[in-house]
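Preliminary data (for renewal application), uridine-5'-diphosphate complex.
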Amino acid sequence: MGSNGNDLHILFFPHMAQGHMLPLVDMAKLFAARGARITILTTPANAKIIRPTIDDSIYLHIIPFPSTDFGLPQGCENQSSTLTGNQRMNFFKAVDSLRDPFDAVLRDLCPDCVITDMFLPWTYYVATARGIPRLVFHGMNNFALCANDAFERCRLVVEEAESFVLPDLPHQIRMLRTQIMDFEKLAGTPMEFLLEKHKEIIEVDTKNYGTVINSFYELEPEYADHYRKVMGRRAWNVGPVSLCNHEMTGKLLRGGEQSTSVSECLKWLDEKPMSSVVYVCFGSGGFFSLAQLRQMALGLEASTHSFIWVVRNGDDNWIPEGYEERIKGKGMMIKGWAPQLLILNHTAVGGFVTHCGWNSSLEGICAGLPMVTWPLFAEQFYNEKLLVEVLKVGVEVGSKVYEFNPEIRPILEAASVEAAVRNLMGEGEEADERRRRANVLGETARRAIEKGGSSDNDIEKLMQELINLRKQNFPQLLLQLDLLLKQGYLQ
Ligand code: UDP
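Predicted structure:
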């Protein structure tokens, strides 16, 4: 380790949702491995998920979460376990109520810097009042951050357009209007709290000390530069953070809820030929209507490729008649939480059907896999563009509408699913070229995080900068102490 990291204390405060918490815990591990003193701030139920995946070098600081005060079920401390829009709103309110406990933690622990999630914008004000720099983690890549910014600039002009090109980006990125959420449209609806949150996030975005990004420079150099030079943000690309999980246990326990079928699933994969299986998973919040699940089931079956499919919907009454019997040996369903890192990196897996959540997309990239892209909401439609048009490792399934609610989201027919999977897993120059590119990206990703790689260097640079920052502030602190002594406040 180059910098004297042992001197540096960083406090991480992840937003309690799997897609935000898992990467930030991974990031904390990367900084700890380089010698920084790390505290992760979280709540009791989330601590249970995190603890088995970290070692003694990381300190877990736990504050209570007021679930029941905000009408949430006892123990509901993670956004991934909120089911309705109303629950989600109450969850956000409960998270916002952590402001004072967060301040008390800063007072007691005096970290040199805090790295907190974008959904906790108030942490900027609390940290700043205590003279502590706040770095923000958006959970997004540079491309999506730039695309978001481009959309904000053209939002009013493209209001009525069916499609439009995002202005002033390094590539010509054409979006359908239906693929982007206009937060302003939430005004006066039950989802208005998201508009408020969106405004608060934007309000502090340029004030933060900087941004830490789960990406690596070589993946999206034009956008990493655009984010820094055109948008003027101070940013460090420190990913892919999931690559910190070298050990089997880290990969197995990541995310907490263990499905009983893990060993069965790995045994099943062991018996399959190399690169023959498609892995299908839609992250922690990818729920579908029963009608859509049925079409997906039929499409996967018709593709004739072997598949592992993670289904998070609770009941089974959507499964087509005789389906489980027909797919025996060919398809496996995991009902619940899957050990995604283990599956993606198994040699039998040759393709990934993803909802384009950034963690999943980047984990697919690290595993060197081509992907079928099936975005649902959030910045997933931007990630699809990055995968399909910029990196050219993705095949679109044809998802065209941004929609949280699975019951009103347009249904994609089995034929679209079948065609996309056949295209992904098939032979021919186009599919081979896609696989080759994916493979190269996987190698580049691994190199970025190794000693001397671009992300390793960015972590090192950031740590050094934070150490220097503290050194600069140190004399000022001494002067203040001196003054207090002179005034008789200290003995
Ligand atoms: N994940 C997992 N098992 C599952 C579903 C998801 O381990 O069954 C992990 C996945 O590896 C990723 C994260 O959960 O790290 C999901 O993040 P992503 O950004 O892909 O999607 P989100 O859940 O935020 O929509």
